[in-house]
Design a protein that fits this description.
The chain is an alpha/beta fold. It folds into 2 domains: 222 residues, Vaccinia Virus protein VP39 (Rossmann fold, 3-Layer(aba) Sandwich), CATH 3.40.50.150; 111 residues, no CATH class. Helices cover 31% and strands 17% of the residues. The protein is built from 13 helices and 13 strands. The strands form 3 sheets. Strands 3-2-1-4-5-7-6 form a 7-stranded mixed beta sheet, with helices on both faces. A 4-stranded antiparallel beta sheet has the order 11-10-12-13, with helices on one face. Strand 10 and strand 11 form a beta hairpin. It is globular, with a radius of gyration of 21 Å.
Length: 364
Amino acid sequence: MSTASAHVLDLFAGPGGWSQGLRALGVRDIGLEIDAAACATRWAAGHLTIRTDVAAYPTAPLAGKVAGLIGSAPCQPFSAAGLGAGHDDMDLCHQALDDLARGRDTRHLLRARCSDPRSLLVAEPLRYALDLHPQWVALEEVPAALPLFRHTAALLRAAGYSTWAGILNAADYGVPQTRRRAFLMASRHHTVTPPEATHARTAEPESLFGPGRLPWVSMADALGWGATDRTAPTVTAGGGKSGGAEPFPTAARNALLAEQERGAWALRNGNQPNATVRGIHEPAPTVAFGHNSARITWTRSPETPESVRITVAEAAALQSFPPGYPFQGTKTKQFEQVGNAVPPLLATTVLTSVLTPTALEVAA
């Protein structure tokens, strides 16, 4: 595979979480993505993109041209925030993986039997890997899909790859969010191991074995809200469908500003009694914006009703996107893109583990 023809292919590319991770390594990818708003975001950010259905895109024209393969299939069928139909479809997904490994493409038959047709998209990375033989593979999904990743890893090992599949916590790698996700890494050229954590809940001192881990990065650190910083977050009701600003009621705004001065801000994920609440000097809980996206809010304390919806820019910072990242579409679509993306900082860490210097040279 020549350096002139080899590319990194990003399946279900979204707004560019993996792409930003690669950019930090001096590598560009070509993203396949069907959502118009996510494509617009990628184009605005300068990421090469083809708007297409990953499941329908032919692999034959890509033969001999793909050095690396990335994939984050839609997580809704398997996520707690979704309807969970993927759990009912798990056996069909396993069958799709086995059939592809045997050279039989039964996706169209199995898709018709799925409770959620999107469930079967988790098999697409294996189809591309078996057809294109990339040097390396990196996949991400919600933890519930880990059995499918372990199955995929076994099939890739049979095809000559070293593999690792397991759960990583984004906070352990400097992302200001305790986001747990399943990852699969595979390489044809070196033994793959999970990335070593750089951060921990509590800082660890230096030892004979090397430097200790840093403390988890807090929301206050990520957003620039220091202990003496009295700059309040943007206080709006989230705007309308067009994304325009909509001032929060004055009484609530004043109350929130007063409490922020006393350092009482917290991020609340949900409006139920058992909703996750984190203080600003902790990492955020998982930032996910499904059908309950308006329920992720800044609040004075768990007991008070006044709250302010988190902004797109704040959510993006908690996902480790750079400031000013050009999310496109309606406010709802922007939140959706932020929540579905792989945190770029975590993507860089995972890609550094799976890539060798030679692979980086080929992909650059």
